[in-house]
Design a protein that fits this description.
Chain lengths: 121, 277
């Protein structure tokens, strides 16, 4: 299963978390990916310079073929994982079968990623 | 514009803090104020000094809860008394309303401390008026951006303690506003020129992008002052202020240049603080 969207998120940020939200990680300068056990923050391509393609699916379906920039566990209590903007509006959602899932994130560029791939297993 | 020397102002302030400050106030000082200045700080200060010491000023008759107190000629009590320092509007709710209610002021300039009415000295009254106004103004500025914010309450057991508490409130408010500005909430310390926003949408025109890039290259990011936007195409982020996601009073917005780092920090802060949830 795989879904994708081209977006220009406000503040060039997206958050992967439960549909009801999670604890947003503290900001750190020049960090592309930040996380807590309930929320992953991902920096996208600067919104005024161009769109970012966000892909969400199972890890087998979306594997980018290289080592992911993030590989960790995320709590999804309601069973619905959501990719949201800063005001918690969802871009993409995905049903998951477990309250704790393994999430992998691949970026196509170390600083200016315009393709963000999120794999769930 | 008339220039007033700081030494002169300092001298005037010292005189108005004296116990006999009323001697330095012309009886007809109101003639020199303009319509609409009734809420100005100096107006409150002069008014208090004037009313406290006017020998011709009538008193509230015996039998009234405020019997014996100075009055302006109309019998008032409690909240109707203009001497009660409070910004509580009779029917409306304004910013700072909870703050005004948090510290009890009695009539006649008395303050209630630990359930006891305490009469401040004239100098203390003048200082109280000043620090309370300063604290209220600082808190109002914070609450324009963060309406739920309140200063941490301070304990006090004397009038001097109350004055210190108001100062602490003002200091907390200044720290909070500084923190908000550093997070990109509100025009930052480097904010210079800006252009009006057509709306909260982000469908910026080429002209708006050009103008923001011009302002950014000259004045820098409004939050941190850096003149390099830090983006691959060297375009500044066009930042709505107040941020669309954090505009509790629905104020009109303006556009400012922001660097990518400050934009990211702002977005993180808004997400952490539940912006427009």
């Amino acid at each position: 299963m795989r879904s994708a969207r081209m977006i220009r998120p406000v503040n060039s940020l997206v958050f992967v978390c439960d549909q009801l939200g999670g604890l947003t990680p503290s900001w750190q300068k020049d960090k592309q990916i930040l996380w807590t056990d309930t929320c992953i923050s991902i920096a996208c391509y600067p919104e005024q310079d161009g769109p970012t393609e966000v892909i969400l699916g199972t890890s087998e379906d979306v594997d980018a073929g290289h080592v992911p920039q993030f590989d960790g566990l995320l709590k999804i209590p309601t069973g619905i994982l959501s990719v949201q903007n800063v005001i918690h509006e969802p871009f993409l959602t995905m049903d998951v079968s477990s309250p704790i899932v393994r999430v992998q994130v691949w970026l196509n560029h170390p600083r200016w990623a315009n393709k963000v791939t999120i794999g769930v297993s | 514009m008339t220039h007033i020397h700081a030494t002169y102002l300092h001298h005037q302030l010292k005189r108005l803090m004296r116990h006999d400050a009323h001697r330095f106030l012309r009886p007809d000082w109101r003639r020199f104020t303009c319509f609409g200045e009734e809420n100005q700080l100096f107006h409150h200060l002069y008014d208090r000094i004037d009313r406290k010491y006017s020998p011709d000023q009538p008193r509230v008759p015996r039998g009234n809860p405020d019997g014996g107190q100075w009055t302006n000629g109309r019998i008032r009590s409690g909240r109707q008394d203009p001497r009660v320092l409070s910004d509580v509007t009779p029917n409306g709710i304004g910013s700072g309303i909870q703050y005004a209610q948090s510290r009890t002021r009695g009539t006649s300039g008395r303050v209630i401390i630990n359930g006891q009415q305490v009469e401040p000295s004239p100098a203390q009254q003048a200082r109280l008026t000043v620090v309370e106004a300063q604290a209220r103004e600082a808190i109002r500025r914070v609450q324009e951006l963060d309406p739920k914010w309140q200063p941490t309450p301070s304990a006090y057991e004397s009038v001097e303690g109350l004055i210190a508490a108001y100062r602490a409130d003002a200091r907390q408010a200044h720290e909070r506003i500084s923190e908000l500005h550093q997070m990109g909430i509100g025009p930052g310390p480097f904010a210079g020129e800006s252009i009006p926003a057509r709306g909260p949408e982000r469908d910026f025109s080429a002209a708006e992008r050009r103008e923001i890039n011009r302002i950014g290259s000259e004045k820098g990011c409004h939050t941190c002052g850096i003149t390099n936007p830090g983006t691959p195409l060297e375009n500044f982020v066009i930042d709505h202020q107040p941020p669309t996601a954090w505009n509790p009073l629905s104020r009109s917005q303006r556009l400012y240049p922001q660097c990518i780092s400050c934009s990211s920090k702002q977005g993180n802060w808004i997400s952490r603080n539940g912006g427009r949830r």
